[in-house]
């Protein structure tokens, strides 16, 4: 789709996305930092540094929760796909908010001491053998390092440089990071709070992330695994299930996913993984004979998996056949960019 | 699902989808504000501890005793800190005054600084150098601690300075690393007892037989524990020499 490192350029949708994102973050922080001290009615206020550290910390937790919900939500209901589209900006902003939280903590709890503050944060509490009183700061540091790595490698340059599979596996770091943050909050802030509001928010947030991932995986299993027998030809679906302009996705025995499209009454199959960022090509639509990725709009010719010139991206293709009203795909992928003659869909013959 | 409007990032968003997205955006932004309020306005009360700058600078004279952390038995006080009081002391930041006080053990000294106060607990933060702590003229009366026997207490070990109001909140598990840092810096550890001992809810903590608080106790700072201790009265302050072998997490 592009020959440069900036295949996805600024466009109005991105501005709207970022504006909504910033509005949410600024509103959260403003309400927390400026509005709630008055509402608390304590005899003496919480130290502003601690209040601010909490505001940024809670904000980062919620942002990461939303980020992690977007993926499975988009898999469950494609109307959420646009939220995924610019998720990298969301991630980078989350990293900045988390970093601010860390600076407030570092320059308050670990300052004013003869010990260097960076050393102090690692050395002051070493009770690693116990749950209550565990040095939960270390979990936060781990998560912050993950977020920094992800933010630093979020640009498309790194995607090209590391190749999409490596980049994608690197970005799975977000899951250990989130788990660490839940632990960081549970073993830290939640240990002392008598009021359970934040504890509930953390539980519901983490539960939502886990629940949506399970739901999305279940849905895909139910919808996607038409794996038949152990032969070389894998059943995908009944011919009647195909819809013009769209694909059916199935998982092959080796774990790769294939997307079988119906285009002008004829069947073609491509790898489901977009060459850009492994986006789910099969959830895209055919626009003018070109499969269009739902994530960032890279396009591929449905018959050969090649992006239209001048672009050079290619995805693997698969052989397709129809037998007894069942669409089947050969489990062996063709090299990326291999032309495969489309197969007419029997029931649709003459209809299109 | 087949009919769902299709979104491509760089193309205008289809109309139905646009409405959906506006609703989601509005929900997220409003939700963010509501969450900010929900979390921010339900934080616990950090208590009334504070630096009492409003009292002005306090200057009193008394006898230095090492427990091993230094205490001052006030002999010449003022309205706020009368003679007969026993003061715990700290330097600025996360540091105590053991090195400055040690050479004056058993002698008269004049101290000056700002008071930290939380309920019955207080502590004097000394100014730096001679202005904060210096030898005073005169004969120092002997100080004799009065043993109160062995007790089993339940409560929490805190760093006395944050607890007294240097930080709000200044105790608990979320504050543990900070407390450890204060304690290693020489700030007196204070035990907050659930059951008052002879009327005192706050007791200064040491190790057995005139030693500093043992390392094992650092693992239990900020936690609700039960511990046995020899308690002695030093002027109007109780000091508990904990027996680390008896320390148990309490629930
Ligand atoms: S266009 Fe980015 S993943 Fe497909």
| Rg calc of chain B | 26 Å
Low-confidence blocks of residues of chain B:
none
Largest contact between protein chains? A-B, 87 and 66 residues
Main sheet record of chain B: 5 strands, mixed, barrel
Number of helices of chain A: 11
| Global geometry of chain B | elongated
How many domains of chain B?
Answer: 2
Give the averaged pLDDT of chain A, no decimals: 88
- What are the secondary-structure elements of chain A, in order, as H or E? HHHHHHHHHHHEEEEEEEEEEE
Number of strands of chain B: 13
Bound small-molecule species: FE2/S2 (inorganic) cluster
Q: Give the beta-strand count of chain A.
A: 11
* Structural class based on helices, strands and sheet pairing of chain B: alpha+beta
Alpha-carbon distance between the termini of chain B? 53 Å
Tell me the number of helical segments of chain B per DSSP (H or I, 4 or more residues long).
Answer: 4
How much helix is in the residues of chain A?
Answer: 40-55%
Order of helices and strands of chain B: HEEEEHEEEEHHEEEEE
Mean pLDDT of chain B, to the nearest integer, reads 93
Through-space gap between termini of chain A:
29 Å
Helical content of chain B stands at 10-25%
């Amino acid at each position: 789709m592009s020959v440069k490192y900036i295949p996805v350029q600024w466009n109005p949708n991105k501005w709207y996305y970022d504006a909504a994102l910033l509005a949410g973050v600024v509103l959260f922080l403003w309400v927390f930092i400026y509005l709630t001290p008055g509402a608390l009615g304590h005899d003496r206020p919480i130290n502003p540094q601690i209040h601010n550290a909490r505001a940024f910390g809670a904000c980062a937790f919620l942002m990461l929760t939303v980020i992690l919900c977007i993926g499975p939500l988009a898999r469950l209901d494609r109307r959420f796909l646009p939220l995924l589209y610019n998720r990298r900006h969301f991630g980078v902003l989350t990293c900045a908010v988390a970093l601010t939280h860390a600076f407030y903590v570092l320059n308050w709890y670990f300052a004013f001491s003869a010990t260097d503050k960076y050393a102090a944060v690692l050395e002051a509490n070493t009770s690693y053998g116990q749950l209550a009183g565990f040095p939960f700061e270390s979990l936060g540091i781990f998560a912050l390092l993950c977020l920094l790595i992800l933010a630093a490698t979020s640009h498309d340059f790194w995607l090209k440089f590391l190749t999409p599979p490596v980049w994608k596996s690197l970005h799975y770091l977000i899951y250990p990071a989130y788990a660490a943050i839940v632990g960081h909050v549970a073993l830290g802030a939640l240990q002392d709070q008598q009021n359970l509001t934040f504890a509930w928010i953390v539980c519901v947030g983490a539960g939502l992330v886990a629940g949506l991932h399970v739901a999305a995986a279940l849905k895909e299993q139910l919808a996607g695994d038409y794996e038949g027998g152990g032969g070389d030809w894998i059943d995908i679906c009944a011919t009647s299930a195909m819809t013009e302009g769209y694909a059916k996705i199935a998982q092959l025995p080796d774990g790769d996913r294939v997307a079988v499209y119906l285009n002008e009454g004829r069947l073609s199959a491509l790898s489901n993984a977009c060459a850009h960022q492994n986006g789910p090509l099969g959830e895209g639509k055919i626009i003018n004979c070109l499969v269009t990725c739902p994530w960032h709009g890279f396009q591929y010719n449905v018959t050969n998996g090649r992006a239209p010139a001048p672009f050079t991206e290619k995805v693997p293709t698969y052989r397709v056949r129809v037998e007894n009203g069942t669409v089947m795909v050969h489990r062996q992928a063709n090299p990326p960019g291999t032309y495969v003659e489309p197969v007419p869909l029997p029931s649709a013959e003459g209809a299109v | 699902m087949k009919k769902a409007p299709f979104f491509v990032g760089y193309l205008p968003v289809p109309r139905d989808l646009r409405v959906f997205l506006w609703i989601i955006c509005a929900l997220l932004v409003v939700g963010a504000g509501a969450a900010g309020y929900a979390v921010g306005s339900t934080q616990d009360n950090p208590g009334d501890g504070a630096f009492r700058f409003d009292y002005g600078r306090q200057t009193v004279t008394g006898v230095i005793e090492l427990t091993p952390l230094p205490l001052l038995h006030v002999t010449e006080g003022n309205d706020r800190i009368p003679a007969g009081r026993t003061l715990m002391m700290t330097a600025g930041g996360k540091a105590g005054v053991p090195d400055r006080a040690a050479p004056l053990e058993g002698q008269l000294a004049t101290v000056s600084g700002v008071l930290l106060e939380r309920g019955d607990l207080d502590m004097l933060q000394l100014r730096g150098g001679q202005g904060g702590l210096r030898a005073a003229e005169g004969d120092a009366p002997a100080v004799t601690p009065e043993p109160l026997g062995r007790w089993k207490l339940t409560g929490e070990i805190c760093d006395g300075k944050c607890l007294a109001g240097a930080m709000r909140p200044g105790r608990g598990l979320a504050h543990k690393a900070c407390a450890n840092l204060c304690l290693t810096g020489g700030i007196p550890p204070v035990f907050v007892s659930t059951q008052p001992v002879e009327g005192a809810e706050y007791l200064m903590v040491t190790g057995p037989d005139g030693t500093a608080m043992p390392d094992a106790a650092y693992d239990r700072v900020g936690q609700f524990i039960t511990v046995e201790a020899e308690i002695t009265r030093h002027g109007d302050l109780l000091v508990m020499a904990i027996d680390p072998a008896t320390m148990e997490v309490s629930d």
